[in-house]
Write a structure and sequence with these properties.
Elements: E1 7-9, E2 12-14, E3 21-25, E4 32-37, H1 41-58, H2 63-92, H3 96-116, E5 123-125, E6 133-140, E7 143-147, H4 153-167, E8 170-174, H5 181-192, E9 200-203, H6 207-216, E10 220-226, H7 229-241, E11 245-249, E12 254-258, H8 264-275, E13 286-292, H9 296-308, H10 330-343, E14 347-350, E15 365-368, H11 375-378, E16 385-391, H12 394-401, E17 409-413, H13 417-426, E18 431-434, E19 453-454, E20 467-474
Parallel strand pairs: 7-8, 7-10, 8-9, 10-11, 12-13, 12-17, 13-16, 15-16, 17-18
Antiparallel strand pairs: 1-2, 3-4, 5-6, 6-20, 11-19, 14-15
Helix pairs in contact: 2-3, 2-4, 2-5, 3-4, 4-5, 8-9
Length: 475
């Protein structure tokens, strides 16, 4: 049975009675899974008001109580992971093993925030006069509004919810309408864990309308968004017009730098497997492959060979390593990158055309002989398509890697400590992975620089965007 879909406002699950709704479609089969109700203006206002009313008490709640609820949700996540994963595969498309891995790892996020929320400390500043005391307090910012994407529907929502709730804030979250089941499961688990009504509210609807309503409201004080750069800039501008704090985790175009002294077979194999994760629909997916000339042919042959063996299909079928793109509009979007590359004289060495039949499938695709100003080298593809180009020197490839306005993640393969240090110091990226993929753990900060975002989620920085600093001095 597919997850029941509803709004969740003030501790109540509200169905489609009299509300506009939309179909939720399985991207592998194009079957309709269910109908998702959209929030009316009255629903949005009720969610905001419920969050404001709940904040009056929740902000004063014991960190121990917040921690207990987060721990309970972590355990419920593990207990219900298989059912949640199956529903995620149905509406998002990723292979079942990937969906299960996403959910189980998110239990760790619950546990991390449960521990860290007990350690939100202020400080005492030594005074200049002996009869003065100076204190710094960290207090919850208030009602938060959050907007989460369809590619990692559980992971992206739970990060924001745990950080807000752990800090003592309340939250209204608009999840992804294309893949809503994971967010509904989260709402159910917090409900079952005993979270007071109004602390968490979940709404759905037309993204532009919902975001405008929630951000403009005088009730909301913090905006958190994960998604594309253009939409992030629009929401940040709107939040700025109302002097509201933002956390923005936006798109990237992650460069991969493979040097001659790297273990080429290992790098090519790892990168090929990582590239097709979630069909390439990952904000930190490797998307610009720069390979030093001495190893270029060897890397390309191994990389392409691994991708040739990837089994593409319905994420619920045995042995499938890559599922469909998440929705129909992604297929022509990826095809446009291939079309532009072909027009510019690039070579498609693998894939390149949509897979015929039911479902939104596009095969792993490798393209060579690209110029740096081509569409694929300058715009985030967000799909299973990889441009592989050669480079000569370290300084040259650093300049090319830093040439775009993006700066989310990056990947370096080298056995030289000197090279690794120079690249990690010089690359303009919020995250640098050297010889492995080590980002997105609960205890590590996740965020970008330049157009790729503002602020971080996870790590000891996780609560920074949800707290305000108050200075108190007295005699």
């Amino acid at each position: 049975m597919y997850q029941a879909l509803s709004l969740y406002i003030n501790g109540q699950f509200l169905g489609g009675e009299g509300r506009k709704s939309q179909e939720v479609v399985n991207p592998a089969t194009q079957d309709v899974l269910g109908y998702l109700p959209h929030a009316s203006d009255a629903d949005l206002e009720m969610a905001l008001q419920s969050a404001q009313d709940a904040f009056a008490k929740w902000r004063k709640s014991s960190p121990m109580d917040r921690s207990a609820i987060l721990r309970k949700v972590g355990q419920l996540t593990r207990d219900r992971a298989k059912d949640i994963a199956r529903n995620m595969t149905l509406d998002q498309g990723k292979p079942l093993a990937e969906a299960l891995g996403e959910i189980v790892s998110c239990a760790d996020h619950c546990d991390w925030h449960a521990e860290e929320c007990r350690r939100i400390y202020g400080r005492v500043i030594l005074p200049r006069a002996p009869d003065v005391r100076q204190l710094v307090l960290r207090e919850p910012i208030g009602v938060c509004v959050a907007f989460t994407p369809w590619n990692f529907p559980y992971n992206q929502a739970i990060r924001k919810i745990c950080a807000a709730i752990g800090a003592g804030c309340t939250i209204v979250l608009k999840g992804p309408e294309d893949s809503p089941s994971a967010v509904m499961a989260i709402a159910q688990m917090f409900h079952d864990a005993g979270l007071p009504p109004g602390v968490l509210n979940v709404v759905w609807g037309e993204p532009a309308k919902v975001s405008d309503y929630l951000i403009r409201s005088p009730i909301s004080r913090k905006v958190s968004f994960t998604g594309s750069v253009p939409v992030g800039k629009q929401l940040a501008a709107l939040a700025g017009a109302h002097m509201k704090r933002v956390t923005m985790e936006l798109g990237g175009h992650s460069p991969v730098l493979v040097f001659d002294d790297a273990d080429i077979d290992r790098a090519a194999t790892m990168l090929a497997k990582f590239k097709i994760r979630n069909a390439g629909q990952v904000c930190v997916s490797p998307t610009r492959f720069y390979v030093q000339k001495g190893s270029y042919d060897k890397f390309l042959a191994k990389f392409t060979d691994v991708l040739k063996g990837i089994k593409v299909g319905n994420g619920l079928d045995d042995g499938v390593e890559m599922g469909p793109l998440a929705h129909e509009r992604r297929v022509p979007a990826i095809a446009r990158f291939v079309e532009d590359a072909r027009k510019r004289g690039a070579k498609v060495v693998l894939g390149g055309d949509p897979i015929e039949g039911k479902g939104f499938f596009f095969p792993p695709t490798v393209i060579t002989d690209l110029q740096d100003d081509s569409m694929l080298m300058t715009e985030e593809p967000f799909g299973p398509i990889a441009p592989v180009v050669p480079f000569d020197t370290l300084d040259e490839v650093l300049a090319r890697a830093n040439s775009l306005p993006f700066g989310l993640s990056s990947y370096v393969f080298t056995n030289s400590l000197q090279t690794a240090t120079k690249v990690s110091n010089g690359i303009e990226s919020g995250m640098v992975n050297i010889n492995h993929f080590g980002s997105a753990l609960p205890e590590t900060p996740f965020g970008g620089v330049k157009d790729s975002g503002i602020g971080s989620e996870g790590g000891s920085e996780t609560f920074d965007g949800y707290l305000v600093t108050k200075f108190v001095t007295h005699v």
